[in-house]
Amino acid sequence: MTAAGLVLLVIGFLLGLSEAHNPSHGVAGGGGLLLMAVGLVLAISGLGAGVALGLAGGVALAAVGGGALTVTVKRSAEVRRLRVRGGAEGLIGQLGTVRNWTEEDGNVAVQGATWRARRSLGPDEDELEPLHTGDRVVVERLSGLTLSVRRAEEWELL
C-alpha cells in the first residue's frame, strides 16, 4: 500500500509539473492534486499511522493545493483579458507625434520608434486639415509597416 501511495504521489507531482509548463486551465493540475491526495492517504495508512491520520493529511493537501490551483487559474484567466501591449496589436490606439508630413503620408513617432504613416480614411475625408510637424495623432490600423493615423481629439490628449 505504501508503494502504491508513493507511485501516486510521484505521478500526481508530475501532472502538477506538466500543468506549470503546459497550461490546461487546471485539468492536469487538478488531476495531479487528486492523485497526490490519494497517494498521501495510501502512503500514511500503509506506514501504520492509521486511516484517520492519512485522511486528515490527504484532505489538508487537497485543500491547500486546491486553493493554490484556484488562485492560479483565476489569475491566468484575468491575464488573458488584458489589452495587448506589445507587437503590432499593441500599437493600435496609441498616441503619436507627427515628425514630417506631405499631403498624403509622412512619418510619425509612436512608442519611441518612427513609423511611416498615412491618413485614415474617415467619413469627411474632403474636409481634413493637413497634418503638420508636432501634431498629435492616434494609430487606427497597421498595414505591413505603415500606420493609418488620424488627428487626436482633445479628450484623447488628457
Task: Describe how the helices and strands are arranged.
Layout lengths: L1 H20 L5 H20 L4 H30 L6 H5 L3 E7 L3 E6 L2 E7 L16 E8 L2 E6 L7
Parallel strand pairs: 3-5
Antiparallel strand pairs: 1-2, 1-4, 2-3, 4-5
Helix pairs in contact: 1-2, 2-3
What does it look like?
The protein is of the alpha+beta class. The chain has two domains: 2-80; 87-157, OB fold (Dihydrolipoamide Acetyltransferase, E2P) (Beta Barrel), CATH 2.40.50.140. It has helices spanning 2-21, 27-46, 51-80, 87-91, and strands at residues 95-101, 105-110, 113-119, 136-143, 146-151. The chain has a five-stranded mixed β-barrel with strand order 1-2-3-5-4. Strand 2 and strand 3 (113-119) form a beta hairpin. The termini are far apart. 22% of the residues are buried. The mean pLDDT is 87.
Features:
single chain, 158 residues, alpha+beta, OB fold (Dihydrolipoamide Acetyltransferase, E2P), 2 domains, five-stranded mixed barrel, 5 strands
Summarize the structure.
By secondary structure, the chain is α+β, with helices and mostly antiparallel strands.
* Total strand segments: 5
Main beta sheet strand tally, sense and closure = 5 strands, mixed, barrel
**β-sheet strand percentage:** 15-25%
Determine the oligomeric state from the structure.
Answer: single chain
Q: What structural class is derived from the secondary structure elements? A: alpha+beta
Shape annotation: rod-shaped
Strands ordered across the widest β-sheet: 1-2-3-5-4
Query: How many domains is the backbone divided into?
Result: 2
* Rg estimate, integer Å: 29 Å
CA(first)-CA(last) distance: 68 Å
How large is the count of helical segments?
A: 4
- Low-pLDDT stretches are none
Mean pLDDT: 87
Helix content: 40-55%
User: How are helices and strands ordered from N to C?
Assistant: HHHHEEEEE
